[in-house]
Amino acid sequence: MRAFLVAGLSALLVAACGPSTAVLPDPKPGTVDHVVIFWLKRPGNGDDKERLHAAAGQLEAIPGVLAVRHGNVIASDREIVDDSFDLAYIITFDSVESLRAYDPHPIHAKLAAEVARPLCRKILVYDVIH
């Protein structure tokens, strides 16, 4: 049933969007994507997700942060896809130096200590430079 729903929703989305020639611009050289994957202590808990989303909005005030995006996991039957997490963030920085200054920044440190760590059983990070 789940596979049928996913396939149906995917087909509806493709039909609604129609053909597209839109192309995402290449990221500016030297920018960094900081990908943070969260596993909640209470998997799937909507209130916990909302607390993390509200907190993440504050990260845009940190110098060097260009964008903060988030999303929820998509269930998958494919072996190669890890769908065991709850939500993920992609935080884009203007440079590696800004990424390095981000971790100890008071806004990030407070949100990590007061929101992310209490709500999450596991957090995994990937950093990618363009």
TrEMBL record:
Keywords: Signal. It holds the Pfam family Dabb. Residues 1-22 form the signal peptide. It comes from the Bacteria. The keyword Signal applies. Residues 32-128 form the Stress-response A/B barrel domain. SUPFAM superfamilies: Dimeric alpha+beta barrel. This is Stress responsive barrel domain protein.
